[in-house]
Amino acid sequence: MKVKTISDLIDWTRLMHRQLGERLTTGSALHDQEMARMLLSYLADHEAALEKIIEGFEQRADLSALNTWVYDYLSHEQIDLKRSCDVPFEKMNFNEICLTVFDVHNQAIDLYRDLLRRADIPEAKELLQALLAMEEHETMRIAQQTGRMQDL
Questions:
Q1: What confidence tens digit (pLDDT) does each residue in 72-96 have?
Q2: Is pLDDT above 90 for 17?
Q3: What number of other Cβ atoms are within 10 A of residue 93's Cβ?
């Protein structure tokens, strides 16, 4: 997908969360370790929830922010699921699953931070700040929950 506007970026991010969730669901169905299956299932549900949250951003966002061009200052690499998910989740252990999911989320956080630094329009800055805060918060939630699961 070619990202030209913030609206495109939001669509692309939403689809990225969907694809990650689908891969997590597949891994959960195929993994042979119960704890890893539980983790993958939890993470898949979380990614599905994130997809809906991001969809809500797009529905409520200011049109001038959504139509802001990011194309000229999108020198940052887009999120690469293949970089993070080059091994199927069903072949990963608990820690590898966590590291992979955190890598994807950290790529999203880095992308939003980069775009926020370059945004000129106040509405675009506000939207990017909200998206960044959401990704950071959700990543912290995942870290807390996975830490609790690992303690079991």
A1: 555 555 565 666 567 899 999 999 9
A2: yes
A3: 13
Q: What is the pLDDT of residues 41-78, one digit of tens each?
A: 999 999 999 999 999 988 999 898 899 888 655 555 55
Distances (CA, A) of 11 to 47, 89, 121, 133: 14, 24, 20, 17
Position of tokens 């969809």? Answer: 55
Collapse the DSSP code of 88 into the 3-class scheme (helix H, G, I; strand E, B; otherwise coil) and give the result. Answer: coil
Tokens of residue 128, six digits: 């990017």
Taking each helix axis from N to C end, the angle separating 94-118 and 6-30, rounded to the nearest 10 degrees, works out to: 180
Place of tokens 């106040």: 122
CA–CA dist 57, 77 (Å, integer):
22
Name all domains of the chain by residue range, CATH numbers in brackets.
6-151 (1.20.1260.10)
Type of residue at 26: T
